[in-house]
Design goal:
InterPro entries: KH_dom-like_a/b, OHR, OsmC/Ohr_fam, OsmC/Ohrsf. The protein is of the alpha+beta class. The protein contains 3 helices and 6 strands; from the N terminus they run βββαββααβ. It is 31% helix and 28% strand. It has a 3-stranded antiparallel β-sheet, with no helix packed on it. A 3-stranded mixed β-sheet has the order 4-5-6.
Length: 144
């Protein structure tokens, strides 16, 4: 792999601690979410951070594919729902539902663009064969 970019973040205290990027832009307290025994939903958690990264990365890949295809669309949005579960071996795993909204094209075209983006996106390439990633699409102007 030809290296194009590298960054780092450091965690202290795990799920009940702090994360900070090397440049200090990301500087967050993280806490166990209520669904995993935490007190509330007032803090970031690793799944939330993964969802944010995956959705931003996938939306960039989608827009690259759209640009390369020379197709006119409205502004795209991508929502990543990340779930944490227990594996049969007692360990833990993730699953992702990615929903992309690609306005001003047919659903068939939106689906094709999303499939192409799924082949380009670094997160998709990193997770392929490791975690379940389900793709869905819409093509309406008002989808959030």
């Amino acid at each position: 792999m030809k290296l194009l970019y590298s960054t780092s973040a450091t965690a202290k205290g795990g799920r009940n601690g702090h994360v900070k990027s090397e440049n200090g832009v990301l500087d967050l307290e993280v806490r166990m979410p209520k669904g995993l025994g935490g007190a509330n939903e007032d803090y970031a958690n690793p799944e939330m951070l993964f969802a944010a990264g995956y959705s931003a990365c996938f939306d960039s890949a989608l827009n690259l594919v759209i640009k390369q295809s020379k197709i006119k669309t409205g502004e795209t949005t991508v929502t990543a729902k990340v779930s944490l579960g227990q594996l049969e071996n007692g360990g833990f795993g993730l699953a992702v539902d990615l929903h992309a909204n690609v306005p001003e094209v047919s659903l068939e075209e939106a689906h094709s663009l999303v499939e192409k983006a799924h082949q380009v996106c670094p997160y998709s390439n990193a997770t392929r064969g490791n975690i379940e990633v389900n793709l869905s699409v819409s093509n309406n102007e008002s989808h959030n």
